[in-house]
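Example for tutorial group B:
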């Protein structure tokens, strides 16, 4: 199973520190270039990919106009607020936006309307807290029923799944029953495949 970039960096740093391998040996062992080895030894986390510059759109010259319409709508009575079609029609009639399509205006308004509400203090920002997991720290277990076709017959079986939170790569095993023996056997199988025991296991359902 190929290593993720984070796992690759960790393995390179480990072999350099513990095994004392040179950059040339690390490059040959993991099939990567010297630059990748140098980056792994320099930083725990891979550098984020560079984002391509935003593509120029035919809508760009009219975005400020659309933004102002959406801002004006915040204080307008509900029945007087602009639909996407009204915005599109105004661009055509008042700004000669002949190169702009309805779908372009609709997609832009769908993303921009909630942003403008936040910018004007009219709505809460949409935010999330990213989860971070250390290797071998945590795993989730799910044990539930699934239906399979067995010899052409729809049959109810029970799927055990253990998924490490760090890698997200789950180990599965199917049982004919959901008894305690099957539940424990599923753990033994998964931990043997993974080659270790996580510090904490969360049970999603049983």
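The residue assignment follows.
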């Amino acid at each position: 199973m190929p290593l993720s970039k984070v796992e690759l960096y960790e393995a390179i740093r480990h072999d350099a520190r513990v095994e004392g391998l040179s950059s040339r040996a690390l490059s040959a062992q993991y099939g990567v270039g010297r630059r990748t080895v140098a980056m792994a030894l320099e930083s725990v986390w891979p550098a984020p990919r560079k984002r391509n510059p935003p593509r120029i759109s035919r809508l760009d010259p009219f975005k400020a106009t659309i933004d102002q319409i959406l801002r004006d709508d915040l204080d307008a009575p509900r029945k007087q607020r602009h639909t996407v079609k009204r915005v599109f029609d105004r661009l055509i009639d008042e700004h000669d936006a002949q190169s702009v399509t309805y779908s372009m205006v609709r997609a832009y308004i769908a993303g921009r309307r909630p942003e403008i509400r936040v910018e004007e203090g009219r709505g809460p920002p949409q935010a999330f807290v990213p989860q971070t997991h250390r290797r071998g720290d945590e795993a989730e277990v799910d044990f539930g029923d699934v239906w399979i076709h067995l010899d052409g017959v729809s049959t109810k079986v029970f799927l055990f799944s253990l998924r490490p939170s760090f890698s997200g790569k789950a180990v599965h095993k199917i049982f004919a029953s959901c008894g305690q023996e099957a539940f424990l056997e599923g753990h033994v199988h998964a931990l043997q495949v993974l080659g270790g025991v996580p510090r904490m296991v969360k049970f999603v359902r049983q």
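Residues 102-119 form the longest helix (18 residues). Compare this with the pattern of hydrophobic and polar residues in the output above.
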